[in-house]
Structures are given as structure tokens and as C-alpha cells.
């Protein structure tokens, strides 16, 4: 999702799509569908048309504009009513689950899903997660001159169009996904720092993993919680054996060229508890890493209330992984412009 995309989405893309759909619907109303379908399936050249139809049906996500349709669908789906007005605090670190299937055009010469195609799926899964969790904060940031959520150093509201930028994606592959094989994408927020919101996406064997509950109205199968034994121990299943691949991404929120602290977006979406003390919600900003002064969180019970300590504990735990991912930005300095030469310049890139 490029910076500035959302500023054009509702005023430009939505009216254009609505007009296109309305015109197509108008034309479809006057068409003789019975005659057209009869000719399609029985007329001359029917074999080629039927084969082409089947091919298109098996490759819908890979057709021209297929990615665009999938991404715009996530915007409309969540911003126009899929998200309940309120979500429980624990939803901030919960998974958004999306199902897909490997199309024939995604299959490489090894007869499995091409590694390059995982990134398009991650785009869709991330968009579902972010627009579902943070959609209340997006219009609030978009009208920052009124809401005054983001202020500059002079205390004035920052001006500019709201947008979301993708900073980087890393993907680790474990097990192949075969042609036409179904799979699920489980995405959740891992952590955030002064600039980036980190998101992890797991590609999971379809139907093998079920959550213990669902937060909103869009639900699927569930499983029982892991029960502790009498001695206090518990046998945790090895969920990793169902993972095909894992990707981690980082998002940045922008108002024009101004970078918005992720905690402001999360807070505006009603998913960030106040930090104890006089600075309240602003306690998530400042300090060495611009996420508040480090304090001893003490013992955290996994069944405890999702207060500031519990959320901060989860953020710090995820940041231990995310900061290594962020350190890869420094590899830009390894590029020397071919100071010692290059191998060659090759055709068909």
C-alpha cells in the first residue's frame, strides 16, 4: 500500500468503481443472457471458450488487475462495515485469518507455488489485518487539522494527506505449497517502535489450526484451550509443523512527508490502553526508543487483564525479533556501485 493511496481511495477510486459497476449493471439488464449462454456453450468454437473459462476460473487471483481487486476489496470490506464498532483490547495482537489457493499461473517449474508470489498474498493478508484493526483511526488521521492528533514541534496540527507505506518484507520458506492447494494466511501485529509497525504473516496448512475464539462477527471453527495438568505443566502442540512460510513486514504511517508514531494510530483506533501516570497515552512516546521510558513490568500472567503492562510486555517481546529485521536496512551501505567491477550486463531481465 503506497503512501498517498488512501487519500485517493474514497474520493477517486470508490466513485469510479461505483460508476463502472452501475454502468455494467445497466448494460447487463438489457442483454439476452439465455441466448448468449446457449451460444457460448454450444456454438462454434465452444471447446476453446470453455477451456479458456476454466483456465480463467483457476487463475482468478493471477489475472490482470487481480491483485488490485483483492486489495481494494479489503479496503471496502472492512471500512464499510466488516469491523464491529469496538474490539476487545486483546485483539491488538490477535491474528487475522485469510484463505487462498495456489493458482496455476503461480506454479513454477518445480511444480509448486513460486516463492515470488508469496509477497502478493502477504499484501492482501496485511491489508485485511490493518484495515480491520485500525480503520477507525484512518479517517481521524486523515482529518488531522480537525482532530489534532498529530502536532508538529510548534504544537500545530500536521497537514498533509494520510497514507501507509510498506518499508520492507522478509520471507522465510519452510514447506512447499502445491498447485491448486489451499492454504491460510495468519497475520498479526508483532510490535512497533518510533517509526515502524511490524507485522508477521504465517502461511499455514488449511484447516489444521483453529483459534480458541474469534473477536468479531466474522468467525470460523474453534478449538478448546490448552488445559494445564495437575502439576501445572501443559502439553503445547507443535504448531510450527503446519507452517509453509513466515513473512515479516513493516509499515509506516504518513501525513504528507511527516511520519506518524504508530502508537497514535493504534490509540485513535481504540486499541491502546493508557500508561499509568500523568502522561497517559502519551507515555507510549519519548525515552531512548521513543516508546516511553523503560520500566520494570514485573511478573505478567498470561490470563491477566490487557492493561498497559500486558500490552507493553507483548510489544517488547515482539521487538526482540523485529529489531533484527530492522537492522537489515543497514545493508544499503554494502552497495559500492561496482567499484571493483561487475560480472556482466545480461538481456531479458
Short description:
The protein is an alpha+beta fold. 34% of the residues lie in helices and 15% in strands.
User: Helices and strands: which structural class?
Assistant: alpha+beta
| Rg value | 24 Å
Q: How widely separated are the two ends?
A: 25 Å
Helicity, in percent?
Answer: 25-40%
Query: What global shape is seen?
Result: globular
Percent of residues in β-strands: 15-25%
Regions with pLDDT < 50 over 5+ consecutive residues?
none
Largest sheet features = 6 strands, antiparallel
Series of secondary-structure elements, N-terminal to C-terminal:
HHHHEHHHEEEEEHH
The overall pLDDT, averaged over residues, is 89
Number of DSSP-assigned strands: 6
Number of helices: 9
Keywords: Membrane, Transmembrane, Transmembrane helix
Protein name: Capsule polysaccharide biosynthesis protein
Family: Belongs to the lcsJ thioesterase family.
InterPro entries: HotDog_dom_sf (IPR029069), THEM6_lcsJ_thioesterase (IPR051490)
What does this protein look like?
The chain has 349 residues and is of the alpha+beta class. The protein has nine helices and six strands, in the order ααααβαααβββββαα. Strands 1, 2, 3, 4, 5 and 6 form a six-stranded antiparallel sheet that branches. α2 (33-42) packs across α3 (46-58). The longest helix has 25 residues, at 5-29. The model has no long low-confidence stretch (mean pLDDT 89).
Amino acid at each position: 500500500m503506497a503512501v498517498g493511496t488512501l487519500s485517493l481511495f474514497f474520493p477517486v477510486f470508490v466513485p469510479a468503481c461505483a460508476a463502472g459497476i452501475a454502468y455494467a449493471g445497466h448494460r447487463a439488464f438489457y442483454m439476452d443472457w439465455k441466448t448468449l449462454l446457449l451460444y457460448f456453450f454450444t456454438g462454434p468454437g465452444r471447446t476453446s471458450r470453455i477451456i479458456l473459462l476454466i483456465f480463467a476460473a483457476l487463475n482468478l487471483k493471477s489475472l490482470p488487475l487481480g491483485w488490485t481487486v483483492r486489495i481494494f476489496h479489503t479496503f471496502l470490506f472492512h471500512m464499510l462495515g466488516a469491523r464491529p464498532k469496538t474490539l476487545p483490547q486483546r485483539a491488538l495482537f490477535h491474528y487475522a485469518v485469510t484463505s487462498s489457493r495456489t493458482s496455476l499461473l503461480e506454479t513454477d517449474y518445480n511444480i509448486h507455488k513460486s516463492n515470488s508470489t508469496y509477497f502478493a498474498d502477504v499484501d492482501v493478508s496485511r491489508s485485511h489485518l490493518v484495515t480491520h484493526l485500525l480503520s477507525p483511526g484512518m479517517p481521524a488521521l486523515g482529518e488531522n487539522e480537525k482532530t489534532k492528533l498529530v502536532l508538529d514541534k510548534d504544537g500545530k496540527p500536521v497537514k498533509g494527506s494520510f497514507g501507509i507505506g510498506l518499508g520492507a518484507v522478509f520471507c522465510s520458506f519452510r514447506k512447499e505449497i502445491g498447485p491448486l492447494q489451499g492454504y491460510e494466511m495468519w497475520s498479526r501485529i508483532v510490535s512497533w517502535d518510533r517509526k515502524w509497525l511490524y507485522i508477521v504473516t504465517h502461511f499455514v496448512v488449511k484447516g489444521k489450526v483453529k483459534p480458541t475464539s474469534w473477536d468479531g462477527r466474522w468467525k470460523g471453527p474453534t478449538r478448546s484451550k490448552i488445559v494445564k495438568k495437575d502439576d501445572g505443566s501443559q502439553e503445547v502442540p507443535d504448531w510450527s509443523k503446519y507452517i509453509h512460510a513466515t513473512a515479516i513486514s513493516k509499515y509506516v504511517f504518513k501525513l504528507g512527508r511527516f511520519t506518524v508514531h504508530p502508537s497514535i494510530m493504534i490509540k485513535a483506533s481504540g486499541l491502546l490502553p493508557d500508561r499509568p501516570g500523568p502522561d497517559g497515552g502519551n507515555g507510549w512516546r519519548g525515552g531512548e526508543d521513543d516508546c516511553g521510558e523503560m520500566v520494570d513490568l514485573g511478573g505478567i500472567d498470561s490470563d491477566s487483564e490487557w492493561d498497559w503492562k500486558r500490552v507493553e510486555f507483548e510489544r517488547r517481546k515482539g521487538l526482540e525479533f523485529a529489531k533484527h529485521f530492522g537492522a537489515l536496512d543497514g545493508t544499503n551501505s554494502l552497495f559500492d556501485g561496482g567499484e571493483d567491477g561487475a560480472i556482466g550486463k545480461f538481456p531479458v531481465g
